[in-house]
Design goal:
Blueprint: E1 4-9, H1 17-27, E2 31-36, H2 46-53, E3 57-58, H3 64-69, H4 71-78, E4 81-87, H5 89-97, H6 103-110, E5 115-119, H7 123-127, H8 129-140, E6 144-145, E7 149-152, E8 158-162, H9 166-177, E9 217-222, E10 227-230, E11 233-235, H10 242-253, E12 257-262, E13 273-277, H11 281-291, E14 296-299, E15 306-308, E16 328-330, H12 334-339, E17 347-354, H13 358-369, E18 373-378, E19 392-399, E20 402-410, H14 411-425
Parallel strand pairs: 1-2, 1-4, 2-3, 4-5, 5-6, 9-12, 9-14, 12-13, 14-17, 17-18
Antiparallel strand pairs: 7-8, 10-11, 15-16, 18-19, 19-20
Helix pairs in contact: 1-2, 1-9, 4-6, 5-8, 10-14
Length: about 425
């Protein structure tokens, strides 16, 4: 039997993510019926949410037609799980006090079904003693309250209070109602269609972030570089380019103009992305210069630090047991050069692939390179995640204002988080 949740959307800036949550839930064959508070309609429209759920969106407690046909009691008890996303400090305070002054709070007071609250609020509101008292009591009363993420917020502050990303919320919902969670269903175009059969995610844009970066130019480098030794040999690394391509894909879905400068990788070009293929670090530096100006540059590529001083015109032959002479010289530091460029992007983001002392090395790189952010990840073989070439990542976003850790997540999910942070700045 198909599972169903009742989604309550309350009024907060994170309300737009409820659209993405519905998309992922529908992909998991979970039916969604939605209720919006009055303040939620200031952030997203009932029409948008209704298109995503393919159902009426409820909001008015005193709509007699709805009360006669469905009623708040039926709404509160027909679902397998009630999910509040986002759950504001105000709504949770009402829940704790037993206040029922609108349809959402009346449903919550009348239900006999399990309730999952997904908080989202300013860091100071989250840390306030009153909020923590309310959450502690709600948990004692049997309400499941997820712990929000930490990171940069739309208000410019940093800390706990960010809404957990929709894929992770879906994972928890699936666990609660006995549905198998599938990471592969969390990304890509929505299967939801309008009555005329047109995909609502037309142009490959996510409804949650549609056109938020319209008019912005995002420059991204991805993959390794190959530094020729002779016609058949080269110096390289294990970078697959997957993280950079995922970021390019997400940026394009947010409406940005995206220039993707890619080293030698076998990956499909994301829809809406302009791709420039290069081989060497020198090629990449030239392509970066040509792509400027840009509002933001995200330097994900694992550029080789060295190249052969002399690229032999013919294949170097083995001479018995003697080692072939190989003199190395330093490649240009593309990130540091861009930080000093006359067309320096407003936001310059570097990546640091490290195998030890991850944070210390990344902080030093942030200062040394002159960029605004460093995103560091552990690529050592000891971390057991297979980051280089794999589908998951564990990164630290390091800025002058603080640090945020995105724990073991898909590279698509990491890309979504990074681009949301960038959108807040741009």
């Amino acid at each position: 039997m198909k599972k169903q949740i009742l989604l309550i959307v309350s009024g907060g800036i994170a309300a737009y993510k409820s659209l993405e949550l519905v998309r992922i839930l529908r992909r998991h064959n979970i039916a969604v019926r939605a209720v919006m508070t009055k303040s939620a309609t200031e952030f997203i429209t009932p029409l948008s949410l209704g298109v995503m759920t393919e159902d009426q969106v409820y909001g008015d407690m005193f709509d007699l037609k709805d009360e006669r046909e469905i009623g708040h009691i039926q709404l509160s008890r027909q679902a397998d799980l009630i999910v509040i996303c986002p759950a504001t400090a105000n709504l949770m305070a009402k829940m704790n006090a037993g206040i029922a002054d609108d349809l959402a709070t009346t449903i919550l007071l009348a239900t006999n079904k399990p309730v999952l609250a997904v908080p989202a609020m300013n860091v100071r509101m989250w840390n306030h003693a009153a909020t923590q008292r309310n959450i502690n009591q709600l948990r004692k009363d049997g309400i499941m309250v997820m712990t929000p993420d930490s990171g940069a917020m739309a208000c410019g502050e940093f800390g706990p209070g960010r809404l957990i990303e929709p894929p992770e919320i879906t994972r928890e919902i699936c666990a609660q109602i006995g549905v198998t969670f599938d990471t592969s269903l969390c990304h890509g175009q929505s299967p939801t269609t309008q009555s005329n059969g047109q995909d609502i995610s037309e142009n490959n844009q996510s409804p949650a972030g549609e056109n938020i970066l319209a008019g912005k130019h995002i420059l991204i480098t991805a993959g390794p570089t190959h530094e020729a030794i002779d016609p058949v040999r080269y110096i390289a690394n294990r970078s697959s380019g997957k993280q950079g391509f995922a970021i390019a894909d997400t940026a394009a879905k947010m409406g940005a103009k995206v220039s993707l400068i890619a080293g030698p990788v076998s990956l499909a070009t994301p829809a809406g992305v302009t791709r420039i293929d290069v081989q060497s670090a020198m090629d990449m530096q030239s392509a970066v210069d040509d792509a400027l100006p840009a509002d933001c540059a995200i330097m994900v590529a694992a550029v080789a630090d060295w190249r052969a001083a002399h690229n032999a015109e013919q294949k170097i032959k083995k001479d018995g047991d003697a080692l072939a002479p190989l003199q190395l010289i330093a490649n240009p530091d593309i990130l540091a050069a861009l930080a000093k460029h006359e067309k320096r992007p407003k936001l310059l983001v570097g990546f640091a692939a490290e195998t030890e002392n991850i944070l210390d090395h990344a902080r030093a790189k942030l200062s040394r390179k002159g960029c605004d952010w460093i995103i560091a990840n552990d690529v050592s073989t000891s971390n057991g995640q297979g980051v280089m070439g794999g589908d998951h990542n564990d990164v630290h976003i390091i800025t002058a204002n603080g640090e945020e850790n995105i724990k073991h997540a898909t590279k698509e999910s990491v890309a979504q988080t990074i681009m949301e942070r960038i959108a807040n700045v741009l």
